[in-house]
């Protein structure tokens, strides 16, 4: 018996499938987040200007956090299952988050809350990568923060 079979033999039946690469609850939660992240931005873009603080801005906060959380989850799955190194998973997940964030900011430039929520998440990623210092991840986050801030300033001046 190899190690996997020996370990599976001594585990309860409901735990055996988790060791064979079947999705666990966090993977299913990630898929659910991605489904919400697809549906909520459509509502966010279509929200009325009549009462933005009650319609558009709460959805913007929710969509911004889902963008960041779903992208980070993709990176955790890539590195956690050993598909890539931690650095490459961080670059991939940050790139996904920034591409979505820039596209959403261009789709709804009137919103304050969406880019601020994404910037808040990027600041959290920067803080978590300061010790030990991961220069490339911090730099990618800084570029994203700068780009989103410039978009916010331009949208507010128009």
Pairing-aware structural class of the strands and helices? mainly alpha
Low-pLDDT residue spans: 4-9, 11-20
Oligomer: single chain
Q: How many beta-strand runs?
A: 0
What amount of the residues lies in strands?
A: under 5%
Estimate nothing, just give the exact number of structural domains: 1
Rg (C-alpha, Å): 19 Å
Q: Given the C-alpha coordinates, what overall shape results?
A: elongated
Q: What does this protein structure show overall?
A:
This protein is mostly helical and 158 residues long. It has one domain. Helices cover 75% and strands 0% of the residues. It has seven helices and no strands. It has helices at 3-9, 13-16, 25-46, 56-80, 86-107, 113-128, 135-157. α3 (25-46) runs antiparallel to α4 (56-80), α4 (56-80) runs antiparallel to α5 (86-107) and α5 (86-107) runs parallel beside α7 (135-157). The longest helix has 25 residues, at 56-80. The radius of gyration is 19 Å and the shape is elongated. The N and C termini lie far apart (69 Å).
Helix and strand topology:
Layout: H1 3-9, H2 13-16, H3 25-46, H4 56-80, H5 86-107, H6 113-128, H7 135-157
Helix pairs in contact: 3-4, 4-5, 4-6, 5-7, 6-7
């Amino acid at each position: 018996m190899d190690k996997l079979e020996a370990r599976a033999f001594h585990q309860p039946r409901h735990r055996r499938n988790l060791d064979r690469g079947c999705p666990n609850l966090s993977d299913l939660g990630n898929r659910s987040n991605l489904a919400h992240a697809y549906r909520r931005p459509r509502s966010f873009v279509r929200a009325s200007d009549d009462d933005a603080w009650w319609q558009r801005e709460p959805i913007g906060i929710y969509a911004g956090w889902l963008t960041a959380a779903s992208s980070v989850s993709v990176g955790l799955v890539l590195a956690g299952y050993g598909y890539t190194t931690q650095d490459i998973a961080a670059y991939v997940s940050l790139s996904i988050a920034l591409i979505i964030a820039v596209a959403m900011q261009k789709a709804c430039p009137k919103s304050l809350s969406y880019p601020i929520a994404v910037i808040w998440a990027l600041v959290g990623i920067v803080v978590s990568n300061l010790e030990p210092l991961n220069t490339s991840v911090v730099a990618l986050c800084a570029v994203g923060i700068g780009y989103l801030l410039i978009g916010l300033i331009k949208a507010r001046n128009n």
